[in-house]
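hiii, so i know i said id send this last week but things got crazy w the move. better late than never?? heres the sequnce for the chain we talked about at the cafe, plus the structure i predicted for it. fair warning i was half asleep when i ran it
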Amino acid sequence: MRYRPLGRSGSAVSVLTLNIGADTLAGGPSRAQALVFAALEAGINTIHLTSADPVLAEAVGQALSEVDRKLIQVSVSLGRADGRRGGRDFSPEALTGAIDRTLHASNLGWIDLAMLNEPGEDEMPQTALNALKAQRTSGRIRMLGISGDGDVMDAYVSTGAFDVLATSYHVNSPWQTRHRMRAALERDMAVMAYSYFPEALDTARKAETVHAPKKGLFGLGGGRPRHDPLAGAGTFAFLHQTHGWSAEHICLAFTLTDPSIATVMVDAPDAERIEALASVPERDLPPGLAAQIEMARVRMAAA
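okay and structure toks below
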């Protein structure tokens, strides 16, 4: 495992962050604890709770109870009225209540990062932000972050009120995402990435046709016949054709080549997947693959 600084926090975080969410609890609290143990064994020191569900917080807190708290980074997504029933609530009472429940159930002492989950333009009142700043001042949370991909994220980044930006980032990310990341870095914000392997690229057929030119009149034209040896050229089809690499691992490795990204959030249903993902940071992309990705990205942008 490799480690990078998390913005101006002074903390070193593993380049992979393990998400723990409601789907994990489907197998019971013991399953969540087993995943945390597997992550720690793989060198992952950053755990993200995808909701403030107290059952989730308790399971993670118990798993981390024997570990030096200062060596572990724990973050939690805020903004959902209830992690199990859904709904959204960015009121001061809801946000501070979620922090209270998480700390009480987990017995962690503090939350390293409180992450607002994609608030809309009018969902986040100033009173709520003031309440979170008070929580940060008191030490109950160490950092305040914002997560999302919409244009409204630019406005939140520009406020200078946040310490961390979490955004989707992958081989075909638009220039708006890259611009937002640069803006965050200029404000000394740390950057976390998620959705490094989008659904649009998860199969060879999707990777070959994403943003492909549309067919002409009556379905003619707009692509090469399937038997053509050049079919897929200039697309992301090569992600599924690289010896010794899966498409997902290529996408993860590519995301990790960006030094501005502190850590990448990953999902894993079992220890085997955690181990497989944890091996990626130690591998270098095959020669020429980064250039192939860039050429495909440029072609897709022009399509």
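btw The first helix runs from residue 22 to 25. thought thatd interest u
miss u guys!!
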